[in-house]
Amino acid sequence: KENGYWALFATVLIEQLGVPLPSVPLLLAAGALIGLGVLAPLPVFLLILVACLIGDLLWYELGRRKGASILKFLCRVSLEPETCIRTTEGVFDRYGVKCLLFAKFVPGLYTVTPPVAGMVGLKVRRFVLFDTLGILIWAGAYVGLGAVMRHQLEWLLFRIEAWGASLLQVILLAVGVNLLYKLVLRQRFLRQLRTARITPEELKKLMDEGNQVMIADLRHSSEIKREPLIIPGARVVTIDNLDATHHQLPRGQEIVLYCS
What we know:
By secondary structure, the chain is mainly alpha-helical. It is elongated and about 75 Å long. α11 (221-226) links the parallel β1 and β2 (235-236). α1 packs parallel to α3, α2 (24-35) crosses α8 (150-162) and α4 (68-77) packs antiparallel against α6. It folds into 2 domains: 2-195, no CATH class; 200-258, Oxidized Rhodanese, domain 1 (3-Layer(aba) Sandwich). It has a 3-stranded parallel beta sheet with strand order 2-1-3, covered by helices on one side. The chain has helices at residues 2-16, 24-35, 41-66, 68-77, 85-95, 109-119, 124-148, 150-162, 167-196, 200-208, 221-226, 242-245, and strands at 213-217, 235-236, 254-258.
């Protein structure tokens, strides 16, 4: 029982620190064990809450101190193609601090939401309040689902043992498959970027040769405020309204998009 508590705490903490170690299977298992009377709900939720707050407050403080540099680092090392400064800041603009209530359900978003909150100057008390609510909603959803499905999960565990495997081996296999899947997605995403990428030197050469090139700055407004330098001749385009404004983009010439 004690090992179960600390394994849950360690797994959640490691995931919140940025290591791609999925904690959802353990949350489901914890819920099943609560339903079967093996674990108590209060310590389970307290350990999940503390583990998440440790990781989130660390990233919040790094975002507050380091700003965009820590976000760019996260985007480079993340295995989630969806992890993007521009996307996260757009979510903050649309939902405000309420996005902390659902961020942990969204792959890629939960990784960068805490540092963005620190970067945009969200007060620490307000961050902790909404982050705590979001953690409890997230944990409650998966632990509750595990409790509801406790008999099915118990049957699955018996089947696993009948096959001669242990729960730890199955979890490690699931983690390995998950990592491999994310690596494949990341490599596919990077190949797409390389296919459509143009270097600054290539862009300058096009412009120097007199080619008609339209340059669109897709950065978020808060990024432009932090770094107001814009490529000469570039047009600021709001990506959220791109579907409605795409007809304003010129036809018959190269269009180069750039963001963070």
